[in-house]
Every structure is written in C-alpha cells, then in structure tokens.
Amino acid sequence: MTALPRRSVLLGTLGAAVAGLVPATPGGEPAAVPRWFAGALRQATTPDPFTLGVASGDPSPDGMVLWTRLAPEPDAEDGRGGMPDRAVEVEWEVAEDERFARVVSRGTETATRELAHSVHAEPAGLAPGREYFYRFRTGGHLSPVARTRTAPAAGAAAASLTIATASCAKFGAGHFTAYRGMAADAPDLVLHLGDYFYETDRGEVRDPGPPEPKNLAGYRRTHAHQRSDDDLRAAHAVAPWVVVWDDHEVVNDWDGATPDRRRAAAQAYYEHMPLRRASVPDGPDMQLYRRLEWGSLATFHVLDTRQYRMRGSMLGADQERWLLRGLTDSAAGWDVLAQQVFFAPRRGGKSGTWGEFTGSRERVVRGWTEAGVRNAVVLTGDEHVHHANEIPGADDRIAGTELVTTSVTSGGDGDGDAKSGGSGSSVWSLDRRGYVLATFTPAQMRADFRTVSRISEPGATVRTAASFVVPDREPGLNKV
Predict the structure, then answer these.
(1) What pLDDT is recorded for position 395?
(2) What is the architecture, at CATH level 2, of domain 161-479?
C-alpha cells in the first residue's frame, strides 16, 4: 500500500481531533487513553468547553504559547461563554507524537472570569527546532489535538522555513476556504497581519454574527463567532501563529476608538489570541510589536502600524527606534517586516498607508540599507488584492521585496484578472481571495500567491496563481 504523505496523515489526525474523537489504532480500535487523561471522556457531565478550538503562537527555541478559551455557550449574550463566575483549572500537555505516547511537558493553568476563562500557557524547556503536539483537559473533557513547533536555537542554521500570511477575514462576506487551504499546506508558521474579524459585517453570504461590538461582551461574542468556523480552527491547529491587529479588531480606521472601546477591544483580542503575557493589555494600550528569530535563517520584526501613528511617523518614535536597532543588530539571512498596510511607493491606492508617511518609509529603507541587511522582505495585509512589489532605494535600485497578501474573504470573489507591472513598484497583482505561502532557504525566498476560485460557495478550489523567487543578496522578483 502506498504510504500517505506526512501532510495527509497530519490533517487526518487533526480532523479527528477537531471532531472530538480519540485517534484509532491501526486495527481500527480506539487508542488507549494515556494515564494522565484516564477517564477524561467518560467523566464529563457538563457541555464541551472547547468549542472555540485551540491555538499556539510566538514560538521560541524552547517553547511557545498554547491557547484555548473555555466557552460551552460561545454565543452567550453576556460574552462569558456560558462559564460560571469561578476560576477553573485547565491541564495541558505537550508531546512529541500525535498519540501522546511521548509526553515531554505538562502543567496546569487557572482560567479566570476576568479573562473570559482563556488560557495562555507558556511551556519552556522544549528542544529547539522540533515539531510538537498539544492538548488541554478540564472537567472531564479533552480538547482537540493540534500541532506546533519551536524555533531553531539562536544562531543555528535552518534549512528552510515555510510561512503563510493572511489578513482581512470578514465572516459574512464568504467562506473561509483560504484557511482550509492554509491548513492543507501545513506551513511551519502562520503570520496573521490584521483584520482577524470585522466589527461591522452585512453578511452578504452567511450569518455575520452579533451586532457591532462596542463593549467587552460584544467583542468577546464577535471573536467567538469568528472561531465558529471549522476552516479557521483547522488553520490554527496546524501551525503556530504570530498575530498582530490592524483596524477592524477595534473599529474601522480607529475612527471613534474611544479609550473605553480600545480597552474592551484590546482585552478581547488578548483573550482570543495565542499571545504571551508580555501582551496583556494595559488599559487601552497593548504591546504587539515584537521580534521573532528563526535561527540564522530569518528574523521577523512584527510591527504595529495602527497604535502609535504620529505626525511624520507610521510607527511612532519608540517603535521606529526599536525597529532600526533590530535591523542594525541582525545577522539573519532574511529580515522580514511583518506589518499591516501597503509599503512600496505607488500612484493612488488606499489611504492610510506608508505613502502618507514617506519620511518614515525612507528612514526604514535607509535603515536596513545602511545596516547592511542581507535580504529585506516586507509582508503586508489590508489591501484585499495580491501584490508582488519591488521596493526602491535612495538611488532607485531595488532595495527589497514586498509581498502583499489579498484578503481571506473581504471583497467577494474578485475579478480574477492578473496585472503585470502597473502602478508604482508593483510587478504583479491579482484581485482574488487567498493567502501567500513563502518559503525561505539560505539560497532564496520563493513566494506562492495562493488563490481561491470563489468564496461565495463552500468547497471551492485553491491554486497557485503566480510564483516568484528572490535569490539571496539579489533583491528583485523573478517570476517562475
């Protein structure tokens, strides 16, 4: 019998886990439940609290964040998910295998009412550069099983890294087929670049969920409705995510984002994302810009282009200095700026992008050029259109590459007409829904622009519309 590819085996196991099943043995009998979880299924006397699935994020060489939120009634109008007022103990464990025969770490977290009974466990002491599996248990219930990984050791060589980038997932606008495609591609890492949900949604294709959130209960309900989607939960279960917000997680363009509304949006965002304790909100403020190293192969500078905007700077003075210092100190093969809005120069386009902060953009490009960054790549969301851009330097030579991912659903099915060249620095663009899959190696970066044939109907096909390669130390996009 022909062996199934690793990806198929993984997705089959995760699919069974999401369905709440115990994996079967090769003979078809249910696998034995490991001792630590003995009786977990038969002792349950309450509704399943793991309706929102599980997730992991922000991998380091010795760990990551493991997330879940207990919500047996995710659509409860008070935003508490049907949970009692008391705190609840939640156990977690990490294993080297999907059947949890080789458990390497376990612990207990206290899920409290104050944080919507969310869990943010941070296991440490794991081996670098390894794939792991994790799950949770509480009240006699087992969570789905999911896959995660650690980053390589600091400075260690890494043969390759495949990432998926996504943004702009309006629930009512269409089906999240792009997330299903991401799960099938099984990347090593997912970068979500903002607009994880939309605060307003007319529901052109399917039920948009609760009304516009304006308080904590409302934002919690909107997050919970977003996670009711099977494809989104599957994408979270296949790889660790690195997340940052844009505007719709608060309110469009942050117009009318009062301190109270920002406070509610920030708390709900933390409660529903695999973020470390360093990102616990301080009132209306939330620390989201951070740095992730992937051995000597790549450094990801995760930016927040919404929270700190000021006259003359897209990033604000402190974040801009932090970025420039990081670029100067970097010895990575690829320095990647993961951020929200269109970066490269162009004529026209959406408002509120780097084109309105040209001095800030010039300082960033000059910063990576003077620092001698080996390869500069900008990853961007927000646009609802795929773009492959070449970023000019001060002398008009190509200084870096920008990969703009289209939306997951926002904008409808799209027109499907690819454009070569065009406005400003764009080499290629396409108005279809989807995501970008990028693979980094020491020799090159390959970008595959993945598209969904339609989002107005479920079960659509996902394909690669165009691919580009950027060789090491040779900025510029080469179509393949």
Answers:
(1) 84
(2) 4-Layer Sandwich (3.60)
pLDDT of residue 423: 59
Per-residue burial over 33-59, b if 16 or more Cβ lie within 10 Å, else e, is eeeebeebeeeeeeeebbbbbbbbbbb
Q: How many CA atoms lie within 13 A of 421 on its CB side?
A: 0
Contact 262, 125 (CB under 8 A): no
What is the C-alpha separation between 435 and 426, in angstroms, rounded? 17
* Nearest-angstrom CA–CA distance, 261 and 80: 18
- Of 11-25, 50-64, 256-270, 398-412, least confident by mean pLDDT is 11-25
Side-chain-side CA neighbours of residue 444 (13 Å): 11
Topology of the domain comprising 6-149:
Immunoglobulin-like (2.60.40)
Q: At what angle do helices 216-226 and 259-272 cross, to 10 degrees?
A: 40
Q: Among 467, 437, 427, which Cα is nearest to 165's? A: 437
Residue with tokens 């309110």: 251
pLDDT, position 419: 84
pTM: 0.92
**Is residue 238 predicted with pLDDT exceeding 80?**
yes
Query: Could you tell me if 376 and 335 are in contact, meaning their C-beta atoms sit under 8 angstroms apart?
Result: yes
Are β-strands 398-404 and 386-392 bridged in parallel, bridged antiparallel, or unpaired?
antiparallel
Segment 112-130 shows an average pLDDT of 98
AA identity, residue 82: G
- Please report the pLDDT score of residue 417 as a whole number: 78
Residue 442 CB neighbours (<10 A):
14
Q: What is the pLDDT of residues 68-83, one digit of tens each?
A: 999 999 999 999 999 9
pLDDT digits (tens, 9 = 90+) for 302-332: 999 999 999 999 999 999 999 999 999 999 9
Domain boundaries, the chain: 6-149, 161-479
